[in-house]
Amino acid sequence: MTSATAAGASRGPAAPKSRKSVTGTRRTVAALFLLPALVLLGALVVYPIGYSLIRSLYDQSGDGFAGFDNYQALFTDDGIRTALKNNIIWVVFAPTVATALGLIFAVLTERVRWGTAFKLVVFMPMAISMLAAGIIFRLVYDQDPDKGVANAVWVGVHDTFAESSAFPKAHPGRESPLEAAGGGAFITKDPVSAGRTVVLPLVGVAPDLMPDGAEKAVPAKPEDGKITGTTWQDFTRGKGVGKLNGVDGSELGYAGMRIEAVRDGEVVARTTASGDGTFTLPAAADGAQLRLPADNFKEPYNGLNWLGPSLVTPAIIGSYVWMWAGFAMVLIAAGLAGVPRELLEAARVDGANEWQVFRRVTVPLLAPVLAVVAVTLMINVLKVFDLVFIIAPGSSQDDANVLALELYRKGFASDQPGIASAIAVFLLLLVIPVMWFNVRRLRREVRR
């Protein structure tokens, strides 16, 4: 035993073992594997942040120290203030609408057989880049209803309830018996008499824009005790061809033209022209003047100016929601799959209707998932750039401006890198609290 002790003492203290990580990997090996990622992280994240922070404290040339002057410009420059206001609108509405739609889609698609196909269609825009989506919605919001889908639908709905005019460009020609009556209407210069015919010639409507029911105009025949007449397109192709204020064989009648008989400012009779332009008024119109109301010449409804100064930001937010509602739906559907069905059935057994089950059981159980989705989208919208840059035309880009776009414009278009760096640092400061909130919530969920 003494010899064994002596042998142990002669060997000295045991050599320290190589320290290992919690996974059993030697820390030097782990550090070597992490080194490329750390180098990239430093080069692509840490260095740009540090450089932007330093550059934001210098003037335009980069040689003179400007202090906090660039940050002061964030709250005095009109363009930046507009961008900040629009960013607030984005943060409030875009995540809220996208999350709400995602919740609705996730809940409803659980009850239909083709729910998977519907989810696929709703999620599909996520596969499209922001650039492609911007080009698509630039066409969707085109002012021309023949090109823009949004205005085509809007005009179709409007024209269903409010009929548009077929003669927006019509007006009296030379030596016409009609004159302007104010407000876009036209009236005969002289009163009309029963038993006599009246001519109401107009010009200005392109032949291909004449109403579908228009026929070749014919002169009206006089009728005892009534006033008859013709309203037509007093134009014949060919120089010097046709008789002025007279119906020619190739000229078309103004089918559907509304005509009123006016005496002392009151309408005493009214009628509508037939396909050949002829019309008849009763004896009550004797001694009155004939008026063509302004409704006949009202410009056709051309829809909304979606990309104008007042609607451009909501329109772009709509395109963003179209892209990201599918993302919200998929995450919320995953959370919904983990909701205990026993709780929902218990609520129904207790007499709750479907709306009460949704509002008092489903939504509270999904609150953590809804918060994660909303916060993630908030971080995303703070950096939105592509959609605004592509969809907003030059005439309204100032009104649709956001901080990320203003950073680009200050840095490249205006050559003000100091202010652009200050905007970048300000954006980072805005994102950090939201990220911190998200990380804390995720850690709480893990601890549960």
Description:
The chain is α+β, with helices and mostly antiparallel strands and 448 residues long. It has 14 helices and eight strands. It has helices at residues 2-11, 27-55, 69-73, 78-108, 115-123, 130-140, 149-161, 312-337, 341-349, 354-365, 367-382, 386-391, 403-413, 417-447; strands spanning 178-182, 185-188, 197-202, 227-233, 258-263, 266-272, 278-281, 289-292. Strands 1-2-8-5-6 form a five-stranded antiparallel sheet, with no helix packed on it. A hairpin with a 2-residue loop joins strand 1 (178-182) and strand 2 (185-188). The longest helix is centred in the first third of the chain and has 31 residues, at 78-108. The two termini are 55 Å apart. The model is unreliable at 1-10 (pLDDT under 50).
Strand-helix topology:
Blueprint lengths: L1 H10 L15 H29 L13 H5 L4 H31 L6 H9 L6 H11 L8 H13 L16 E5 L2 E4 L8 E6 L24 E7 L24 E6 L2 E7 L5 E4 L7 E4 L19 H26 L3 H9 L4 H12 L1 H16 L3 H6 L11 H11 L3 H31 L1
Parallel strand pairs: 3-4
Antiparallel strand pairs: 1-2, 2-8, 4-7, 5-6, 5-8
Helix pairs in contact: 2-14, 4-8, 4-11, 4-13, 5-8, 8-11, 9-10, 11-14, 13-14
